[in-house]
Structures are given as C-alpha cells and as structure tokens.
Amino acid sequence: MIDRSSGTDTAGESRASQLARPTCSVVICAYTLDRWDDLSAAVDAVLGQSNPASELLVVIDHNDRLLSRAREQFLPRGEAVVVTPNTHPRGLSGARNTSLDIATGDVVVFLDDDATPRSTEWLASILGHYSDPSVYAVGGSAYPVWPTSRPPFLPTAVAGQPGELDWIVGCTYRGQPTTTSAVRNLMGANMSFRREPVVALGGFVSGIGRIGRIPLGCEETELCIRLRQTHPDAEIVFDPSIVVDHTVSADRTRPRYLLSRSYAEGVSKAAIARLIGSEDALSSERAYTAKILPRAVGREASAAARGNPVRAWGAMAVVASVGAAGFGYVRGRLSRIAAS
Fold this sequence. Notes:
- By secondary structure, the chain is of the alpha/beta class.
- The protein has a single domain (16-253), classed as Spore Coat Polysaccharide Biosynthesis Protein SpsA, Chain A (Alpha-Beta Complex), CATH 3.90.550.
- 43% of the residues lie in helices and 17% in strands.
- It contains ten helices and nine strands.
- Strands 1, 2, 3, 4, 5, 6, 7, 8 and 9 form a nine-stranded mixed sheet that branches.
- β1 (24-30), α2 (36-47) and β2 (55-60) form a beta-alpha-beta unit.
- α7 (219-230) packs parallel to α8 (255-276), α8 packs antiparallel against α9 (278-305) and α9 runs antiparallel to α10.
C-alpha cells in the first residue's frame, strides 16, 4: 500500500520510527577520472546527510589511478568510508555486485558517480519507505544538470520539467508518475533495495549493463522485474520527491548520442526479454510508445507549424529514437536466434 500519510506524530512514535529504521549502505560506482569533481561532490553529499549511512562504499571499476586517488582522498573522511576495486567483470553490473558482496546494511542505496542528492534528507526519505515490510525497493527522481542548456532536440512540454526523452541522459522523463507510486522498475542513478532478497537473487546480471562509455543499460530493470517475479507481493516504490541532480556531459547532448543510446536500449531490452520474457520486459515501454510519445510528436510538430521551427527537432528526435530502439531490439533478438 503506497499511501503512507500519517496524522500528528508523537515523540514516542518518532523514537519508535528511528528504532525501526533499517541500516543502510550507500554505494557509488565510478570508472573514470574525468568525473572526479562529480564523484567528490557525490561523496560530500552522502557524508553530509542528516541521517548518516552505516557505510559508504565507493567501488572503482578497473581503474588503478582512480582507485589510488579515491583511497587517498576519501578514506580519511571516516571509518564508514570504504574504497574498493571491482572484483567482478568490468562494467556497472560487476561494480554493483562487488558492493553487494561486502555491504552490511539492511538496505543498499545506489547513487551514480555524477549525481548529487538535492537535500540532506535524501537518505532519510528513502529509508522512511522501508517501514512498510512489503517495500523491497525505493527510488526517486533525477533531474539533468546541462553543460549549457537543454538541447533543442530533447523535447519538453514545460521548460524546466522532464521531457519525454530525458531517460536518454539518465534522468526522470515525462510519463513517469508525478506522485509516490508502485512501478515496474527504478532508474539506476537514484535507487535502493533491501539487500538480502537481491543477494539471494544473485545481484545484477552481467552483460546488459553499461561498460565504461558503452551506453548499454537496463540491468536495474531486469533486477526489478526478477525481484517481482520471485516476490509477487513486493512493492517497488517510486517517490518523485526524492531528488538527485544528475550531471549531463557534453557528449550526451549531441544527436549522435541520442541514436546510439536509443539503439543500445533496444539491444538491452532484447536481452531482458530473453532472460525474463517479453511481456514483463516491454510492459511499460508499450504504454509509453503508444501514448506518451505520439503526444510529444504532435505537440512539437504543432509548435513548429505555428512559427517555432526549432520545435521540429523535438518531433524528429522522438521518431528517430523510436526507430533506433526498434532496430536495436530486432537486431538483439535476431542475433540470439542466429547464435542458437
């Protein structure tokens, strides 16, 4: 049950809530020195939370120089800070699984190395949802921090609000719930899980997650679906008020990245469909493609026709993204058939 509104909280209830609140491990996975400033900001934000984490695990993905610098800079910050190399195959799935090997918290919270919690109550807000034993995962929003301004080919209905294609840069997009809701899956930049059920499932599947700059993904989608398949009564909760600011690098603001990321999404969804079935793998995408994206095309094309030609880029980008994702999905399925 998602509605967790309450009446006046007494001091006794507040103390009971604190006692019942689970312990947590916050995990930040990093692979490049190019994001050092962002990584440092993420570490600072986690250590500055009003409700401190039991431990902060910084997992370095097969980069010795970054590992050395991270140990030098972050280990003196306190005994709760752990800096460790990825002991699994290279890639985000392997780095996350390394954290699951060593995490001790009841809840494991994953924060991207280029994301910064907007509030010092970020962690407390996440953990508050776990007072409900039916909640197995909790995630929040990610808002883009553009290098200059929003690219004209990424449409949005209202300036400053999520656009339909913002998932391409790892951020909250138009079509996601605007109030706390049960969802199929969470976004990787700002998500958390009860540790024991995820460990029992074997963690994240290797081979479908991002490896360095290769824009594959969906490993968190696959894990969320598998979690629900094995625990049918589990709730996966999206709370849009739990916000992180997600830095968007300049290379991700170019049309070429839109095409490559959309194609990779299709390839990744084909991999998930092979693992857990196409019905679960594509349930959210069917509604998104059938309802949300056509409205975006119509809105942007109409605006262009009324004298704002730049908006035509948004309509063309939606069509191009759908085409690239569809091509990636078909190729991913055919590749599997050819290999079998």
